[in-house]
């Protein structure tokens, strides 16, 4: 028999946390939505249909127990809801903020078509934020002492941090090596505060530090130590660097001084938010300038919305396909339009001048190998847009790790991503594993968290086998 607290979707409308007005939120880098109050979170969780086959859970990369913690939330059992949410995710409040739920759990909610999906991401964020506020987020609990063996993790992004926590729980001595001065990777320096406020990330990092995980900041493999030297220090190595090589646009003027890489621009903005001194800061400040962003993914959305908050005179986004074929989140596009961003669909840059971009109108031709209709130039469709700053947001590829790490024996794919065994997640070098974007290519944070969880099991199996082999000898 269904619980009377649930299945309220027929008489209770979908209600996301209210967004601040666009003109208000465009003045700061705070998150755009106000948090749920307890009653509203319980009300919205109770809309869950508790279906027999929970497609929300099936389509979550972490297979979170979504219907169960929604039910607990609806019943007011918030600490239990948090514990169940945290059982499958190392950072539920972060995924609740930045996952594209419209393409994952909420997009596959069975009531979505007729009644509007359950607001899963917003409830997930509320449950864990509430747990932090009430002291329910406990220190990392170490279940055994395996500190005689150590693991070195290269990269402090979501895959590396997730693996670090889970390996520490198993009792291993864990060291994380990262090129930046703060842990978090793109969570810290790539994603703007209006999507993910930085104290949310820093409290997660501090919890890992308190657990005894050692962070080596400002550390570059290949400069401060080779991969071989790290292997000598540790019993296993995890490469979780992510992908940071920006894709380029091949047009005249693409290397001009006013043309910025998206990640450089976002990093500068996030550093300013931390109060850091930003080298050449004026170059990365859009205040009073006309800004053109090239690209249509979520990174492009982060850039246009950052430019608005910096006080740009105008912000345009050029994308070579139409709205229906844009890879970025539909919600992010809507947020950007509310904040005054102009989208120029079916347009691609042809040349970049000192203060303008010449673009070509496009049309969609025949489908390519991937099934998507390929854009092609529209004859006579050139136009010019003012551009004091041009930001390239065309995606990211892998850096040449064998060269950077001084490890030519490290095998990579033709895309430059790390080649690993599909079952063991081990790279071509024994005891070296890979996880996250450096293996799968640029992807979602939730997939990186999943990879961090999966690779932990493989590293644990490998290290236990080493112990057993040593004991047998």
Automatic annotation (TrEMBL):
GO terms for molecular function: 4 iron, 4 sulfur cluster binding; metal ion binding; oxidoreductase activity. Residues 25-135 form the Dihydroprymidine dehydrogenase domain. Residues 151-452 form the FAD/NAD(P)-binding domain. Keywords: 4Fe-4S, Iron, Iron-sulfur, Metal-binding, Oxidoreductase. Gene3D superfamilies: Alpha-helical ferredoxin (1.10.1060.10), FAD/NAD(P)-binding domain (3.50.50.60). NCBIfam families: gltD_gamma_fam. PANTHER family: GLUTAMATE SYNTHASE [NADPH] SMALL CHAIN, GLUTAMATE SYNTHASE [NADPH] SMALL CHAIN-RELATED. This is NAD(P)-binding protein. It comes from Sandarakinorhabdus fusca. The lineage of its organism: Bacteria, Pseudomonadati, Pseudomonadota, Alphaproteobacteria, Sphingomonadales.
């Amino acid at each position: 028999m269904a619980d009377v607290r649930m299945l309220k979707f027929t008489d209770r409308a979908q209600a996301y946390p209210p967004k601040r007005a666009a003109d208000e939120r465009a003045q700061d880098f705070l998150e755009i939505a106000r948090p749920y109050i307890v009653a509203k979170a319980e009300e919205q969780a109770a809309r869950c249909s508790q279906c027999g086959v929970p497609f929300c859970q099936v389509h979550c990369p972490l297979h979170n127990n979504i219907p169960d913690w929604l039910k607990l939330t609806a019943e007011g059992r918030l600490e239990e809801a948090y514990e169940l949410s945290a059982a499958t995710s190392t950072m539920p409040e972060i995924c609740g903020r930045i996952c594209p739920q419209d393409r994952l759990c909420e997009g596959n909610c069975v009531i979505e078509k007729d009644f509007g999906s359950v607001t899963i991401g917003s409830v997930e964020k509320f449950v864990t934020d509430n747990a932090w506020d009430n002291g329910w987020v406990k220190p990392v609990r170490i279940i055994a002492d395996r500190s005689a063996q150590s693991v070195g993790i290269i990269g402090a992004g979501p895959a590396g941090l997730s693996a670090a926590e889970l390996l520490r729980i198993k009792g291993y001595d864990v060291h994380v090596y990262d090129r930046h001065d703060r842990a978090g990777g793109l969570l810290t320096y790539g994603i703007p505060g209006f999507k993910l406020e930085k104290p949310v990330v820093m409290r997660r990092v501090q919890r890992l530090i308190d657990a005894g995980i050692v962070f080596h900041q400002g550390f570059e493999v290949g400069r401060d130590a080779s991969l071989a030297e790290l292997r000598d220090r540790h019993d296993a190595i995890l490469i979780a660097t992510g992908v940071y090589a920006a894709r380029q646009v091949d047009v005249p003027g693409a290397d001009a001084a006013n043309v910025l890489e998206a990640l450089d621009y976002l990093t500068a903005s996030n550093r300013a938010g931390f109060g850091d001194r930003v080298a050449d800061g004026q170059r990365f400040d859009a205040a009073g300038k006309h800004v053109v962003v090239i690209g249509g993914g979520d990174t492009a959305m982060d850039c246009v919305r950052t430019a608005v908050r910096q006080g740009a005179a105008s912000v345009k986004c050029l994308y070579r396909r139409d709205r229906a074929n844009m890879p970025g989140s539909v919600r992010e596009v809507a947020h950007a339009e509310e904040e005054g961003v102009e989208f120029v669909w079916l347009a691609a840059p042809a040349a970049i001048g000192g203060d303008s971009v010449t673009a070509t109108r496009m049309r969609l031709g025949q489908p390519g190998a991937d099934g998507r209709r390929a854009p092609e130039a529209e004859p006579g469709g050139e136009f010019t847009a003012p551009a004091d700053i041009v930001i390239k947001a065309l995606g990211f590829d892998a850096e040449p790790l064998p060269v950077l790490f001084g490890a030519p024996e490290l095998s990579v794919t033709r895309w430059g991503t790390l080649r690993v065994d599909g079952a063991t997640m081990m790279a071509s070098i024994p005891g070296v594993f890979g996880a996250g974007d450096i293996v799968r290519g640029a992807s979602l944070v939730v997939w990186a968290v999943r990879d961090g969880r999966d690779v932990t099991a493989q590293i644990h199996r490998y290290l236990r086998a080493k112990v057993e082999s040593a004991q047998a000898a």
